[in-house]
Amino acid sequence: MTTNKWAIREVAIAHFFDRVTGELKVKLDSLKQNGLENTSETVYTQGGRGNTKIVGFSSNKAARFTLQDAVFTSEMLAMLTGQELVKGAAPIIKEEVLTVSGNAALLSCTPRTAGKLQSVQVLGADGSKGRTLSYAASAPGAGQYSVSGKTVTFGSDTVADGERVQIYVETMTGADASKFASSADKFAGTYKLVLDCLVRDVATERDYAAQIVVHKAKLESNWNLTMSPTGDPSVLDIPMEALRSGDSNELYTMTIFDDSAVV
Known about the structure:
- A hairpin with a 5-residue loop joins strand 9 and strand 10.
- Helix content is 3%, strand content 49%.
- The chain has 2 domains: 6-39 and 58-84 and 182-261, Pnp Oxidase, Chain A (Roll), CATH 2.30.110; 91-172.
- It contains 1 helix and 19 strands.
């Protein structure tokens, strides 16, 4: 017999599904915590001596879910920004610090386009920024550089052997890169949320399965990415509001069942 008196502590496993196709968008099995807050508002008819409350009218019922993930999933971030995750080669800016020999230095990557590099500067002995070099299409003179493939050539007497140059070059990632964007006109969408939980019977201490289903979980676009050299790693907070389905007044359902008895 399924428990009717139970305790809950373990964090849930979250599954987000596309509401149109029904396909899984992302599974989160590394949550640190998940919470459900039920709220409503009540106003009262008051009167008589002492202006006491006579009748209460409740409204504005709401269910708010908050997930906190220990890791960041690219698909989840794309959903929070209202964008699709794009797989494929993408342009990036890469920094290289190279030692000059024979008026030349060799880049580790190929520039995305021929011509001027993003930035070329000679570094001081202490690593501080020094002279900025300008681009020449060919035959660089004093204070100039040119580029052919991965080779950067400097004008005569521009950079001495052993000196270092700091170069920023736009290049391309490999084909396995993933990219999402945050656009001013795109916001987080609405998904079907399924939370798989465990509850424990108070009398027998036997564990039972529990599943919370939110047919319309509206993600909010508010999230933070905190980077710090000390302290705990950054976590991802995922706030959302349960919306009423078009053909039902339900905000969510919770089913407790014996997983071994599933037919």
